[in-house]
Amino acid sequence: MASALLADLRPPIRASHLSSDLLVLWQHPESREIAPIGRLTHHGSDFAFSYTQAAAQIQGFRVLPGLPDLRRSYRSAEIPLVFGQRVLARSRPDYASYIRSLGLDPEDATPWEQIVSSGGHREGDTLQFLVVPEVRGGNARVTFLANGVRHIPDGELRFDGRSERVSRDRQERELVALHESDTLRVVPEDENAHDANACLIVAGATPVAWVPRFLAPSFRGLLEGGDVSVRVERVGAREGSPHLRLTLELDHPAPEGFAFDRDGLWAPLSA
Predict the structure, then answer these.
(1) What's this model's pTM, rounded to 2 decimal places?
(2) Which domains does the chain have, with CATH numbers?
């Protein structure tokens, strides 16, 4: 996973703004739909996990290893093993370069900071993490990793009333030119065969990634009220993992009645 990552010389981010509340997302192995099956939190020295209302509604859902009771709240001084396996050990020779690729300091990065910053990504896995989106101060807010960076050049994209193919070189020119706090547009992608709610992230006139599929319906709701943009929080190294290439932040006025979790499916079953 991390051995291919090179050191990123940008200053490390501080943990003070990292979320203490994550959604655990699970991809159905057959339908490929993504569901928020759990909540993982970290307060002080304690970790807690609860399954969500959504998990109880998934036909055939199998509980996670070591967490067998859907209606129990699990608390521990350690991250549950099924999640802790996504933390790179300090003994690994590529530890320092990997931690820097997350924008963290190898000297004091914690396992929680690794999970929050990386999204818990592992190749071929069905689990990932997302900072819990929220509406606060009248704005819809969420920090997320852009999806599909390596797949943008794979085919024809339809957006802004036109259709075009984006070469990898063109995409890369836009990505390397990005800086922290730059603003990118979010636009609906038309006729996406895999996701009717697909939204592209556009730098200048060039699509560079997608909004994560799990968040796309919420972005579509915001787009109904007008233009939507996101701010660049971090740009990863070109040589690093594609899923870490672009970290973005949404902080956009929420229309009346807007909610990320309109049906309450993210609520813990154990509450």
Answers:
(1) 0.87
(2) 15-131 (no CATH), 139-253 (3.30.70.2330)
